[in-house]
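Hello,

Our lab assistant flagged a job as stuck in the queue for most of the afternoon. It eventually completed. Since we weren't sure the result was trustworthy after the delay, we are filing this so someone can double-check. Below is the sequence as submitted and the structure that was eventually returned. Let us know if re-running is recommended.
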Amino acid sequence: MTRALDPNHIASSEAIRNVNRRIVLNLIRTRHPISRADLARVSGMQRSTISLIVEELIAENWVIEGPTGRLPRGRRPTFLHLNENRVIVGVDIRPTQTTVALADVNGNFTAQETFVTPRDPVAALALLIKRIRSIIHACEGKKIEGIGISVPGRINRSEGRLVFAPNLKWRDIDLGKLIAKATGLDVELENAANACVLAAAWFDRMDDCRNLVVVTVSEGIGIGIYMNGELARGHNNMAGEFGHVPLDPKGPLCTCGTRGCWEVFASNRAAIRYYHESTTHSDRPNFTDLLRLADLGDNRAAKALDTMAHYLGRGMRMIVAGLAPERIIVIGELTKSWQRFGPVIESEVRALVLQGGFPPLLIPAHEEGMARLRGTVALVLQKHFGS
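-- returned structure --
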């Protein structure tokens, strides 16, 4: 008599194969070059299981074999690494500029182009599609896995839609769908701060840290949350909107429509406003100019930056008290002058650590604006490697 197959057993076997595949892919990604024997040793899987998975990945062109190693005796191992001909298009949209880049599966960027972000979203989308098509055209012979897009605002990931980006003044745009239709590629959309969290988790070897917060400081303030080893998005992807928590309901008007939000006191634009309010000159320097003026001894610039730093630290108290992260990674132009900002922020944070608690490690990310782009690469790859 023929025995009926148990569908639950089939599903279970398929799930196990998928999990093992992702484990092997991630080990090759994080430890390459690595041999089959070392994969078996590190993963705890049988060598036969490793061989089957590796051969499958080679057949799919995810993995390629490299040089052979040398051992005192026995068979010489063949090292494996990811196929760098599988590439990702990364897009970082900011209020002042947009960057389109091409990266391989290891997060190494091979091409990059930056242009001024048009204020009109229709014009911005048309220009963005043109630049994406241009970079795709130059990818002959490579397999494009998809497009990852970082935006400074609230998104609907399932629909590929930008819900609202206050500092861009864009609302309800089917960004992902329109770009996917224009390019024929899968598109993944993510909030800019969350993209930075993905970059840290994927490319910065954060295996020993399962609770961290990324604070991005630019025209506004964005927060990305990595809790218990996972990116926290929250209901309607609204987790992390600390930048729009009011510190003073009578404070300056925020781009979100509320008064006195954290970002109106602690963002780059806030520092520029402090400086402008302290002088009768009509010149309005940008944030980079402000850093340079302070370094040259301009007391008004130094005071403006000091005020910004104090507010940054006070706002981070909310994060420390509410989330208790092990680390807070700070991303933005301010890290170029961390000797000015760091001590002030750390002092403010330490002043309100709850009894029995410990202040988080505060880390400036000197990444020259690449964190968001690296996050867009991880955004696309996590479909294959796991979240």
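-- support follow-up --
The delay was a queue issue, not a problem with the job. The result is valid. The chain is about 40% helix and 25% strand. The first helix runs from residue 7 to 31.
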